Every structure is written in C-alpha cells, then in structure tokens.
Amino acid sequence: MTRAAIETLWREAQARGLLPAEASPPADAAAARPWPVVLLTALGAWLAAVPLLAAVALMFGPLFQHGGAYLAGVMLLLAAVAMLRASLPLFAEQLAVPLLLAGGASLGFGLFKDLQEPAAPAMLALLAWGIALAVRHHWLKACLAAAAALFMAMVFWPWVSHLGAPGGTAAYWLGWHVCLGAWLLAAAREWRSGLNSGLVAMAAGWLVMCLLGLALLGSLGKGVGAGLDGGFAGSYARADWPGYVSSGLALLGAAWLGWRWPSLRRPAYGGVALVLAALAVFMPALGAVLLALAGCAAQARWRLAVAALLAAIWIVGSFYYQLAWPLATKAALLAGAGALLGLLVWPLWRRGSLAAPAEVAGGADRGHARLGAAVSLAAVLLVVNAGIAQKEALIAEGQPVFIPLAPVDPRSLMQGDFMRLNFALPGEVPAQAGGLLAARRPHVVASLDARRVARLVRLHDGSPLAPGELLIELSPLGGRWTVVTDAWFFREGEAQRWSAARFGEFRVKPDGQALLVGLRDATLRKL
User: Fold this and answer.
1) Residue boundaries of the structural domains of the chain
2) Closest CA to 132 of 121, 123, 143, 124
C-alpha cells in the first residue's frame, strides 16, 4: 500500500471517529530504508557470512558425525535470533539471515540422520514455527511459516522415499490437505476474534507454501498419469475418493464465499459452483485451492487470492498432460466447462452482480477489474492453445522416426499406469543434464535406414549432416539427457498390450524438435 493510500485511510478513520483527531500516520519505514540500500547491504552481509560459515564448518565439520551438527546448529540459531530480535544496524540484521539458514541446515542434517521419520520433519516444523514467533520482521515470519508448512507436510510422507514410490502421491495429497486445514482454522479464528499482524504474516506464508505444494500435486499428472498413483485412482478418467473430497472442498469454498457475499446468492452462482466441483472430481488438488481462493476473497486478502487463482489455473492447465485421455476429449471437456461457465457468469457480469460487498470492495474501479479479468482470461487461453497448436503442428509436419528401446531395469519397466523407456545415446553425451540452467540443449545425429529406424550415432558438433541423417534434440529428465521422455503412460489394465513395445514412434522436425506419439512392436506394427 502506498503512502498516499495510507494517509487517505487514516483521514477517513479520523472522520468516522475511529482514530483521535490529533493522531498522525506512522512513519514510513521504506523512506528510512530504501530498497536499493537494503539490497546492497544484504548482498554485502551474505558475502561476509561466507568466510564465517566456512570457519564454522572447519570447526565442527569433523564432529558432524558425533553430534556436532546439533551444537553448531543451536549456536548459529541462538545467535541469529538474538540479532534479529535486537535493534541492530541493517548490516548486522541482514547478516543474521544466512546464520539462521546455516543453523537450520545443521540441525536438519543431524535430525534426519539420527531420528526416524516422521519425528525429524515434525521437530523441524515446530522449530521453524517457534523461531517465526520469536523474530520481529514480518517477511521473515512468513518465510519461516512457509518452511514450517513444508516440514509439516513431510510428516505424512514417512513410508515413501520419493513421490514416485507406490503410495507416494497419496501421502503427498494428504499432507498438503492437512496443512491447508490448519490454515483454515487460523482463518476462522482471525474472522472471529482477529489475529495480530505477526500471526497474519505467518498464516500468509503457510498458505503460500500450501498453494505451491498443491500446484505441484496437480503437475504430478505429467509424471504418474493422473497425478495420483498407487493409493488413488491412477487415472483422471476414474475418480476415486480424493476426487470426491476435492469436489466437496470446492463446494465448501463456494458456500463460504456466498455466505460472505450476499449478492452471489442466485441460481447462476450455484451453477458455477457445480461446474467447478465437477472439474475438481478429476483434479484432486483443485478443490483445496478453490477453497483457499474463496477464503482469501471472503476476507479481502487479494494478493493471496491471486496466488490461489494462479495455482488453480496451473492445476487446470496440467490436465493437458493427462495422457490417459485423448487430446480431443480433454479439449472438449475444458471447452465445454468454459462455455458453460461463461453462459452462467455473463448475465451476472452484465448486471454488475459479481461485485464484492462494500466493505470488501473498498471502492475499487469495477471497469478496471473487469478489464483485468478479461485480459487474464485471454492470456491463459492464448498460452494453453499455443501449446496445443505447437504439439499438433509437430505431429502433422514432423517426419516419422522409429528409435529402438534400450533395455531398462525389469523391476521398473512397468509401474502402475506408465512404462519406463530408455534409449541408447552416443557415449559422448554428457552423463549429467544441465536442466533449466543449460544454455543450450544438445542434439544427437540419427542415421535412418530404409524403414526409418534411427540409430543415434554421435553428438552433433555443428558439422553438416550426411544424406539419411537428421538431428534430434535431447531433453533433461531425472538429471540426465534422454530423447523427449523416459516414460509412456497408458490406462490401467493395459500393461500386457504395451509390453511388446520395441520401438518408440516419434515425429521430428528439421530443427530437431521431437515428440513421442506411440510405440511399435518388433515388426514396427502399431500397438
């Protein structure tokens, strides 16, 4: 909020008798600490902390296997908290932040090494929450509360070592929903009796981490078919109890918002709620995010509401990667839901019935709000359709190429609703992938025979290609390079059908862009 807005609200409060006439607005802290000064001071403090932390590592490094991690962690945390609670110069204040991180990392190392799960993440969650209560700065309270939410969600993951393990995503779903439930309790208390500003900041940080976790849960559809493996449905096409819980949460959020905004209490709003609840059945992370969105909007926490809206859009967008459904079916479902939502919302929009209550709206310019919503919707549709159009163009224009499947560990060949793929790459391809930080993805040269079966012969060094050769771009997955993907997803119960796969069928453009479109057997017959 700008200084002018604060002064305007202050004068309105004085005019209504809520504040004494002689009271003056608080001093502008930003004027005393301009952000360039804070940024440069923080940079200097972090650089100065490097040799300090190196000295601590030299002192306690050999003792880390014998309890030294606890001693170093406690000392660093106590020093950091003492510095953050005191009124110190800006440099010393910023110096405390890397000390806080180093202390937490040391304690985390010791706890995860010595304690059984879920005790270690539970203790770290309590520690992060306690430090958040102790420090004075609201931004740091929010960050520590976010870390506490992450550790609390990890309490529910003890029986899996990673999210790809059987039941891993089920535990992931449960952990983030429990954390969201804790935020709902805090929101209810804030609505009934209020919270101090420090607890409000902590609740905001907690919620943001929950939204990130739920958005990642929605994105897991790219890796395990439905985004829910083992313990759940295994396919969007067959909803199970997490989907019904998600739908119920979406309806609960709609009821909450309708209770707080009487202007929404009309049949069209109920229709919108039912459409979103129906979508949430097939997206088990969507309902919780919609509930958070409704709660933030009901309490006029617009920045958090925008974060929840972005998480919801991300989850709906990840539905595109659900390969158990044909692309046309997914497009028809989303287009139909969008058209139905448009038909329901348009009459309310035209009559201006979607405005928030006066005490919530705060006199915002309705025309600007509508324009912003329209631009946001257009941007989302543009991005989604551009991605679909790009894939469809690659399928239509790319050359058909068949790449032999290399052997993989038989234990990981078939896992639920996806098949592990591997391709024999030339020996000069780097063992480790640069991922998103790589300046340029490598290309391999493929030599084609008469059947268009490709043999990956060498890493492309920029030299001209020989007749019968073409380029294929590699993609980073799991810390290594591969051809497009390392998995093929299918409906449950079809493992026998795909077990005969011996070739991956690709569409490849002249610049090396490739897309996996199917699998073939030993005779190149389509499966």
Assistant:
1) 399-520
2) 143
